[in-house]
Amino acid sequence: MKTFVSTAFLMFFILSAHAQEGTVSIKQDAKIDRLLELYSEVNSKENFYQIQVGFGSYQKAQNLKSQVEVDFPGWYSKIEFESPTYRVRLGRFKTKLEAERKYLEVRKKYPDAMLLKPENSSR
Hints:
Layout (H helix, E strand, L loop, with lengths): L1 H17 L12 H12 L6 E8 L1 H14 L5 E6 L2 E9 L2 H14 L4 E3 L7
Antiparallel strand pairs: 1-3, 1-4, 2-3
């Protein structure tokens, strides 16, 4: 009887493990792709003012970015490569007024900082 129960349990386990296999198909509305494109356009760097805090070698840029994150916690910061150097950029400001206010704040700590305009803007 013990062998029968063990065999039955083993068969149940094997059959239930086999039953776990299957395929998944996702039906996605075609409008989602367009929404993702629009989201990318809206959030691209060209639509924002940024403050360039400094530049240099990759190591220097990493160190500077770490310091910027301490000095301005919660602000968006990024290292971007523009040949031949790495640049540390701070913020994603939609309006010129907001960017200029933040720029004055950053210049107190980083006097060589520069305010960058959006590339495709006529503001």
